[in-house]
Every structure is written in structure tokens, then in C-alpha cells.
Amino acid sequence: MSIKIHAFPLSPRAFKALAVAEQVGADYEYVFCDLFKGAQHRPDFVAMNPNKKMPVLEDGDLKLWESNAIIQYLAEKAPSGGLLPADARQRADVMRWLFWESTTWDPAFVILLWENLVKGIVRGEGPDPSEVAKGLEKFNAAASILNAHLAGRSFVCGGRLTLADFSLGASLSAMEQAKVSLDAYPNIARWYAALEALPAWVRVRAMQAPPGDN
Ligand SMILES: N[C@@H](CCC(=O)N[C@@H](CS)C(=O)NCC(=O)O)C(=O)O
Q1: Total structural domains within the chain
Q2: In the list 16, 94, 111, 154, which could disulfide-bond 135, CB 3.0-4.6 Å?
Q3: What is the CATH number of the domain that holds 32?
Q4: Would the CB of 16 count as within 6 Å of ligand 1?
């Protein structure tokens, strides 16, 4: 086994990488990166990712960070998984949604996750209502686009499961903690329910319990 994935599975970005690894049946070692204990600041970790953030994938001398780059690599290594089409148009469609996830969907969602969960844990502070309002405005703008796109579609790209579904769906693995509701977005809710039923998704949910908690 040469691939290692350093991850803190409560994070949606980690969830994304682990869920794709599970979905494609990657032969990988999961390395728990305990953000709450500062594992991201250890010199050996910083040598892999100077951003001091996880997830990080190691494959020999390749130290890969950015969750969307990681899932692309995992999908390339397992083409039979079908998560990244070979056809140029179909692949461009998947890549479009991965970029949209990085630039639009994830930044909106993390405002709400930070304000409603993480800030309390790391700083002991409650949510700032103006930041929550900003997060909701951005989330609702993005969710309206995704909800409209998913009308009549089972998956984000071309009627089949791809990296786009994993990338976009991963944020929603923390929607309760972020206090995000899908009530106004029935197409997203239907699509996300299908993702949650995937065996890979269920396995990563189980990994969210801290090591030793059984
Ligand atoms: N764009 C990056 C974001 C990675 C990221 O922000 N990771 C956060 C957790 S979700 C982290 O490791 N934070 C540690 C810290 O800020 O100390 C990706 O998608 O991989």
C-alpha cells in the first residue's frame, strides 16, 4: 500500500477525499490528522503541506494537497470507477463543477460551518449574526443554482455519479453542524439522500468517530 490520506474526517474536505477513496476502492492508509491537537502544525506535516491544512494525499514522493486535486488523482488511478469521464466534454463538465465547488459552494458553506460550529470549538466564541447573514446569502445564492441544475437529474453531470457529486455533496455531510436547511431545495435534498445511501458514504460516516471511540 503506497497511498496515505491524512484527514480529519469531521471536515467536509476530508470527507470528500475519503469518500472518493472508498468509492473507487483505493488501496490506502487513513492517517488521522487531529486538527484539534494541532497535527497540521507539526514540522513533518508542514513539510507536506505548507498551508498547514488537511487533507493531504501521499503517494511516494507525491505530496498532494487541495481536496479536489486529491479526488481527481484518486479517480485517475482507478478509471474503472467511472468518476472522471475520459470524453473531453464530459470531463470538462465535471471539472467545471469542481472549480465551482472551490470558488463558490465551499466558501459559502464554510462561513456557516465556522460561525455555527468551529469558532465555538477553537475560540469559544458564538456566531456573529452579520457573518451568519453573509454566509446564508452566499449559500442560498449557490444552492438556488445547484437546485435548479438538479431538476430532473439524478446526478450533477450527465446522469451518472462523478467526482462532481462527491465534491459538492461533501459539504452537506456537515449541514446539521453548519445549521443549513435544504427545505427550500428539494432537488438538492433528493440528490443528497442518494449520496448518503452510498456504501462509501456510510463507511466514511463511521470513520468520523474519533479513533478509539467504538
Ligand atoms: N481548499 C482546501 C481547504 C483545506 C482546509 O481548509 N482544511 C481545513 C479544515 S476544513 C484545515 O485543515 N484547517 C486547519 C487549520 O486551519 O488550522 C481543500 O479543499 O483541501
Answers
A1: 2
A2: 111
A3: 3.40.30.10
A4: no
